[in-house]
Amino acid sequence: MGHAQNKDYSQRDYDAILRDGEELISTHCCFCGMQCGMNIRVSKEDKKVLGVEPRYDFPMNGGRLCPKGVSAYRQAEHVERLTHPLIRKNGKLEQATWDEAMDLIVSKIQEIQGKYGKDAFGIYSGSSMTNEKCYLMGKFARIGLGTKNIDYNGRYCMSSASVGFNQSIGIDRGSTNPWSDIKFSDVLLIAGSNTAECHPLSMPYIWGARDRGAKLIVVDPRQTKTALVADVHLNIRPGTDVALANGLLHVMIEDDLIDHDFIQNHTTGIEELKGLVKKYTPAYVSEITGVAVDKIITAARIFGQAKNGMTMFARGVEQHATGTDSVSNYVNLCLVTGKMGRKGSGVATFTGQGNGQGGREHGQKTDQLPGFRKITDPKAREYIAGVWGVDESEIPGPGLSAFEMLQALGKEIKGLLLICSNPIVSSPTVGDVGEYLKGLDFFVCMDFFLSESAELADVVLPSTVWIEDNGTMTNVEGRVLRVKGIDRTPGESKRDWKVICEIAERLGRGQYFQFNSPEEIFNELRVASKGGTADYYGITYEKLDKMQGVFWPCPTEESQGLPRLFEDLKFNFPDGKARILAFEHKGPNEKTSKEYPIILSTGRVVFHYLSGNQTRRIEALRNLCPDPYVEIHPNLAKKYNIAQGEPVKVSSPRGSIELPARITKITREDMVFVPYHWGKSLAINHLTNPALEPKSKIPEFKVCAVKLEKISSHVGEKHG
């Protein structure tokens, strides 16, 4: 990761970087929610992507890029780019014309919906797309196809944070504060996030806080690179976050480290919380979590005594059967100590997908309409119907959530459009998911690479990469950004938003999709979001260019946006008070047993992104981490007589996978860890538990029960 000083670069500086015949496209990275600023070097003559240069003018990363960001541009010219439509003929995907592909898609949609009803055709979408495309997919599902069955892969990432924030503070913005506030915290509690690897450009902010004397508390079952630099590492047993937070709250209440005035004037629910956490003594919590008593007490006192502090978390907290409880309980730490509504105090979740925030705001969630409106709210339905120019009765109700949709394939859902997602790698029990996809009457996929999921499709449509399109994204802070691209579509590829509009036209619904540019889509999104919780109405492309992004809510064109929420200490409930909620520890859905005595947890590595469909194809990243592995503590490895690098069979009640052992003290003795960026026989999601969190419907990726077996055969198929 580069560490060039943060400074403004003049045009003269850029002229020195560029060679003759080149230009710079100023945009943002396509990967995680940091949305780091970058400049793409492009040939003026043939628009070929040549490289990347840092942007020093964007405040989030100030000229720094992580390994993925440095390499992202390489997918644009990749030899495996899809450049022609493909149709399955005689069991094989073969090149076809656009007319052939579109005629087949439209006829199959009409056939399936005519026979089984509108809801028999579903859309499974993604959150690495622009806001414009996320909005368009929700609109296309509801009034293009008329189906209730649309959901997206953000269901696997951000949904527990969404529910947790909504039930505690009444609004789901990934951070109550701009990222620059991190430097002004006196204590940072980071739970379930290996920030140094998964959001490395957040680390300079953390170092900034440390330079001011801030304490760092890290909650993680592994001694990650982030945990290594913590003042207190709470090495929690996976699935016990609710109990740990209860223990921290118990100590802060017993030691009177809570803000009585803030609680009385700005919250409800404290008495119920006090009653519940009374039994969660440090000794009791230590038994549940495996964290030492003195660490629990020390962490609670550090957090409680600090004037300003933030709790920040990621998938390690959220991807559990009790994920929403865990999120709200970590929010409780700030509510009971009054750490909200000012610089250096608040809550945040590290957004995994590039547009994980915007992707969940504007209607591609099955229970949602644009602006974070509920699809069951009569007033919301009436307003959006007016924006779209349809009768309210034409807007379907809520459908199935993402994994429930997959389970319904071949049953209630006979046809599927998949875009910007790879569920045969990213879903739990991926072996079953493959069978679900094969059970469809018709399956169409839009992508720029032939992903593991696309390999099963009846039609594959070639789309553009992020640097070939324009639009907006919303980053981890809630800052809406402009992304800009090159005016090109390699081969016969098309921009996916144009393809969606064309399908709508062919279905006789084109009058609702008369868009000629992303800006036209965005301007409709602005109106659709007006008055909603995520109000973008006052945001324009011109304002975004001038301001380096605008924080929502931004309700008027005169507004400059709202970087820091709740400065007036009015929370997003009718009475203006935040909800302190009390939760009993329930633990994971699947407990260890005599047959499956070990806990499995999964996660990311710095060199790869999500299902790996993009990063596994970039040679520089693949060389740095070519294959998955299983982390095993030395004591556990000794028990099974496993040596460094030896092949190990890891099995759960749902499947098995063979991986080389990486023996390390990073991991707890009662667990193993496997990164999840690989497909086919190397997909760890063959093993993970499909149990869903009841409120958010997120699968419990972060903990299941497994067993280990030492094997003598070679490790299974490598997939690059």
Report what the structure shows.
The protein is α/β, with parallel strands linked by helices and 720 residues long. It contains 24 helices and 30 strands. The strands form eight sheets. The protein has a seven-stranded mixed sheet, covered by helices on one side. A hairpin with a 6-residue loop joins β28 (689-692) and β29. α4 (131-145) runs parallel beside α20 (496-506) and α9 packs across α13 (293-305). The two termini are 24 Å apart. Mean pLDDT is 95; it is low at 1-7 and 714-720.
Feature tags:
seven-stranded mixed β-sheet; 30% helix; 720 residues; alpha/beta
Structure summarized in a few sentences:
With 720 residues, the chain is of the alpha/beta class. Helix content is 30%, strand content 19%.
Detail the topology: elements first, then pairings.
Elements: H1 11-17, E1 22-28, E2 37-43, E3 49-54, H2 67-71, E4 86-89, E5 92-95, H3 98-116, E6 121-125, H4 131-145, E7 150-152, H5 159-169, E8 187-191, H6 195-198, H7 203-211, E9 215-219, H8 225-228, E10 232-234, H9 241-254, H10 260-266, E11 267-268, H11 270-277, H12 282-289, H13 293-305, E12 309-313, H14 315-318, H15 323-336, E13 346-349, E14 368-369, E15 373-374, H16 378-388, H17 402-408, E16 415-419, H18 423-426, H19 430-438, E17 442-447, E18 459-462, E19 471-474, E20 479-483, H20 496-506, H21 518-529, H22 541-547, E21 550-551, E22 578-579, E23 598-603, H23 619-624, E24 630-632, H24 634-639, E25 647-652, E26 655-663, E27 671-675, E28 689-692, E29 699-700, E30 704-710
Parallel strand pairs: 6-7, 6-16, 8-9, 8-12, 9-10, 11-22, 12-13, 16-17, 17-18, 23-27, 24-26
Antiparallel strand pairs: 1-2, 2-3, 4-5, 4-18, 14-15, 19-20, 20-21, 23-30, 24-27, 25-26, 25-30, 28-29
